[in-house]
Amino acid sequence: MHEQTRSIPHNPLAGNPLRTHRDLQNAARDIFEPVLPFITPGRAGIRFDATGASYSNRGATMEAFARQFWSITPLIAGGGRFDHLDVIHEVLSNGVNPDHPEFWGDPTDIDQRIVEIGVLGACLLIAPESIYEPLPTKARADLERFMLKVNQCRVPENNWLYFRLLANLGLRHAGRPCDERQIAEDLARIDTMALGNGWLSDGLGRQCDWYVPWAMQYYGLVIARQAREINPEFCERAEKRARKFADHHQHWFASDGQGLPFGRSLTYKHAQASFWAAWAYSGQPQTPWGRVKGMLLRNLRWWSQQAIFNPAGLLVNGYAYPNTHMTEQYNAHGSPYWAGKAFLPLALSENHPFWTADEEPLPAPEQETVITQPEARMALRRDPDDGQVTAIVGQSHGRWLRHAGSKYAKLAYATRHGFCVPLSHDTIEFFAPDSTLALSEDGRGWRSRTDHDEIEMIDRRIVIRWHPWPDVTVTTWLAMTPPDYIRVHFIDTPRSLHAVDGGFAVPLAEETRPDPGNHTDTGEGHASVRGPINAAIIDLNGKRQGEIIKAAPNANLLYPRVLIPALQSHLNPGIHCLAAAVPMSNTARVEASHAARAEFDSIAAAEHAPAE
């Protein structure tokens, strides 16, 4: 990350090597300890700020408490010291007590409490002797009644099916009644979401984002280890999928451990490492322990260098710095503690092969290597110079999601650059159009792709057809052409339009004017920013004017202040072809590669492109 964000105030992990079993035990305790002063007055939850979410404050206090279990349950299960079990038992007992003034409330259809009941179910699967059995008799009965309520609730047909599964399987593992019929139905339903080649979608709409590793794969591996007898065939399929998926998922990570910023729920931070944690926990034969260990711990170490805690030592919403602007409507103050899923290997002994293995690095990439993942409609490249990842993606998400277009429908995503979300659509600076074709009728109200009519992936190419207005048709071609990627937009419009074709965002250097650390170059057919991190965009078939957009602050996930090189043009009614190359390496080069120009010629011939 750029030096302006290298300061890591308040991060309790910053001085932790994060290499050994003991290091992670210390990390789990250091993350948990700061929440203790924020237990509610009735001692039935945790609340440490006044922000709201799409569910009740009571649900949010339950969430902030329940999500602590992701890290402390494996800590306890693996024999780690934990001095606050009495507090955990007290808060849990009060929260599920219907007579307590701070009772969490019974779950209803599509209710956040169902998610957190799933966490409690995982606790009962992993460490019932520490979490469940020491509870008073009434509290055990209250917890059982509370968890069984999920069987009366409707849940979304996606990763939420696992929360009901975990609740039932956790109760079963603790020797309590459960709904065996519901278990069988939910397992069968999850199997229908398999896409092949190790992939599952988060639901039946082919959504392939971080929920595939940290949910769809993760819970299947936990169940395969802790509840295999319930359905051995499902567990075997889950393990087989995970082995295949691992070969794909490793390409979502840079050599320094950073995960690809893409999709929703990125405020969950080091939950990015969850798949590797669950694979280690599942204990499958022939597991490449050093490879798995390296993938997990590099990601944790990357997060240890980010400003993700507040002065009280609490995880806060945002990505690489505090930022509620990029969050979803379902993120409350305690939501980031979903990150604790990465600590699952603490349930293994320190003598386990995972902990005794030497970390293995990612294999060194070659210049021309592009990884295609058709199940996710994604093509990725890891840079041979600095190991950073760039991806072109052919996905979108429902409009119910805040900033869905920015999180799924950018032209490209990159670990080096992050991505921006708009603060408003009123000016191009607020719109922050990195890796985006932005269109406007008046230069004030800007639009970009949020969904699609059709997406097709052909090897290293992705073709997306979309309508920014009902009468304006855009066909966008994306193609990997190392060391560049290209985007080609064919626009059929009856309207006059302003167009801005944005490249990657780079951090704005601090702080005097003129900024000594950023050197910009704009001209006919190009724009670039040179500094510790570089970016450029190069026109392939015209003479669009280059410009540098200073985006509004806090639009980008990695850097609070960014510049975006872009090409601008005015489109009269008619058919237009806008094409550009964007370097994927850390360069401000303003000449397109031969591969990029040859690929554009091929695409233009296929579409019979007009001259601009």
From TrEMBL:
Domain DUF2264: 21-362, 395-577
InterPro entries assigned: DUF2264_C, DUF2264_N, UCP014753
Protein name per UniProt: DUF2264 domain-containing protein
Organism this protein belongs to: Mucisphaera calidilacus
